[in-house]
Amino acid sequence: MSNNEVAAAAAAPPPHIVLVCFPTQGHINPTLRLAKRLASKGLLATFVTTSGAGAKIAAASASPPGAMSSGVRVGRGRVRFEFLDDHGNERDDLMRFLAASAPAAFAELLHRHADVACVVGNPFLPWAVDVAADAGVPAAVLWPQSCAVFSVYYHFAHGLVELPPEEDDDHDDARVVVSIPGIPPLSVAELPSFLLPSNPFKMLTEAILGQFENIGKSSWVFVNSFSELELDVLAAFPSVSPTPPELIPVGPLIELDDDAVRGDMIKAADDECVRWLDTQSPRSVVYVAVGSIVELPADEVTEMAHGLASTGRPFLWVLRPETRPLLPEGFVVEVAAGGGVAIAGGGRGVVVPWSPQERVLGHAATGCFLTHCGWNSTLETVAAGVPVVAFPQWGDQCTDAKFMVEELGIGVRLRAPPLRREAVREAVEAAVAGEDADAMLARATSWSAAARAAVAPGGSSDRHVQAFVDEVTRRASGKASSS
Q: Cα 242–146–291 angle (5° rounding)?
């Protein structure tokens, strides 16, 4: 490259990437984190979601007016936000609304930004790839779950696997019911529940399968995972017919630092949580969180409360505001008031509406994580090296739980349904002090090192991100020189 070409490249504006995201916490977290990774390497990343989600993010972060649209410096690049008007629609209505009206609004957004080098879409918004293709903009998809779950959906979408009827499932995890190359045998209870007849979220299933219909329009399929975690799946998947897309692991998409660009939709009690953890002994705290969408019924909240109290161990329980009234009468006063009060066995308990989860998992006081096994939480606990108590509810959580407990060997399963307080106590004890607890911790520590190496400079996922940045930069440079 000549000196003039080098100077021209240096003076050119950075490539502009638009990432469009479904407005739930489980999708916002990995998408925004990918945006930050791209920005840190010198790109301009515009994060797009709905106006309702944007208002919650702004309120939780206390962002000054205009800061989200003008952008925030991240590394050598910048992250900015734009929002599609959702007119206050709730989640079920929102799926229909977005499918009907968002494509036109998103097309107009791309028209306003003629410099867009690539659109990164989302499995719940398959139309984003179509809009990008119509606009002549290269597209990618960020799959926010595991490579294994992607493979299950791909096999199902192309009629390569027949799922057994649910009534045949006897909940025996050792019983082989579904076999897919690179994936351990799965029972019905271990499949992504969105594929089962009993699934109540039909529109989500349709949206996900819709992404597989137009996946060929995407030049890249990124996965929030890392190569070392899913070697068998990644080795087997390319041999599938019809020829599948290449899966490009770019995870774990975790927070690498505490910067000002966050996507929390509920304000986390950061300082309070950390100050309380600072008062606890190493590996003593049971951290409990079931994500931003799972809604536990009243009887399970009661059993969970009594089960946690009966362990005699300190616990930090994330209970969203709408669920808190389901706690047993007097529970907060007796065992979880403010910074915690002594309970039987010397334990203490704290209930918060939201938490800085990665800071909690990374704290020396955290001994285990009772989790719904959402993929973000799965990767965050893998990266932190914390053993788990697996309590999956639906969707990919069912498959994630199997991998954490049986394949990675970093946790135990909480027996349910029905959920019983005795089962909570027994599972926590097994994870923290059981006969396999030390081995689980050692395996968790090893996986933590592998996860962090993957996203460190020169790691497997970092190389994949850098290769994408290099490619879009090359394409943008070529486009600019030919115009």
A: 140
Q: Please, what is the angle between helix 437-455 and helix 375-384, to 10°?
A: 100
Which amino acid appears at position 341 of this protein?
V
Q: What mean pLDDT value characterizes the chain?
A: 89
- Residues with catalytic annotation? 27
- How many Å apart are CA 27 and CA 376, to the nearest integer? 9
Q: With beta carbons less than 8 A apart as the criterion, state whether 297 and 304 touch.
A: no
Asked if 461 and 251 count as a contact pair (C-beta separation under 8 A), the reply is: yes
Cβ–Cβ contacts within 10 Å for residue 142, how many?
Answer: 26
* List of residues 6+ apart from 325 with CB closer than 8 A: none
Instruction: Determine contact, residues 129/143, Cβ cutoff 8 Å.
Output: no
Instruction: For residue 253, give the nearest of 56, 35, 14 by alpha carbon.
Output: 35
Domains of the chain: 3-259+456-482 (3.40.50.2000), 270-434 (3.40.50.2000)
In this structure, are residues 372 and 296 in contact, taking their beta carbons and an 8 Å threshold? no
Length of the chain measured in residues: 483
Identify whether the C-beta of residue 141 lies closer than 8 Å to the C-beta of residue 218.
yes
Report H helices in 265-368: 270-278, 298-310, 331-335, 357-361
Dist. CA 163–CA 179, nearest whole Å = 10
pLDDT tens column, 172-201:
544 668 999 999 999 999 999 999 988 888
433: which residues sit within 8 A by CB, 6+ positions away? none
According to the model, what pLDDT value does residue 344 have?
Answer: 35
Indicate the pTM of the whole model: 0.91
Q: Work out the average pLDDT over 5-33.
A: 83
* Burial category of 194 from C-beta neighbours within 10 Å (exposed 0-12, middle 13-18, buried 19 and up): buried
DSSP 371: E
CB 399 within 8 A of CB 152: yes
Collapsing DSSP to helix, strand or coil, 287 comes out as: strand
Q: Reduce the DSSP state of residue 302 to 3 states and report it.
A: helix
Question: Tell me, what amino acid is at 408?
Answer: L
pLDDT digits (tens, 9 = 90+) for 33-74: 999 999 999 999 999 999 999 998 888 776 655 667 778 899
Q: Helix, strand or coil for residue 8? A: helix
Mean pLDDT of 294-306: 95
413-419 own/partner pairs: CB under 8 Å, 24+ apart: 413/389, 414/370, 414/389, 414/390, 416/300, 416/391, 418/299, 418/303, 419/299, 419/300, 419/303, 419/304
Cα Rg, the chain, nearest whole Å: 23
- Distance CA(159)–CA(138), nearest Å, equals 28
8 Å CB contact between 131 and 107: yes
Torsion of the alpha carbons at 329, 334, 339 and 345, rounded to the nearest 10? -130
